[in-house]
Specification:
alpha+beta; 12% strand; 29% helix; single chain; two-stranded antiparallel sheet
Length: 51
């Protein structure tokens, strides 16, 4: 690993993601789309534990 930035349109698992213009979410095949709010909460949680 060790990558700080992932290429646009490719998930950390190497799968291509489809951008849904209607909802503004990136959808990964085989996984439920993650809302911005859920992603924000996850980031806050990881940041808190990382300190």
């Amino acid at each position: 690993m060790g990558h700080l930035q992932e290429p646009a349109g490719v998930s950390p698992w190497g799968e291509e993601r489809d951008y849904d213009a209607e909802t503004g979410h990136l959808e990964t095949p085989g996984r439920p789309p993650v809302s911005e709010r859920a992603a924000e909460l996850l980031l806050q949680t990881l940041t808190a534990f990382g300190q």
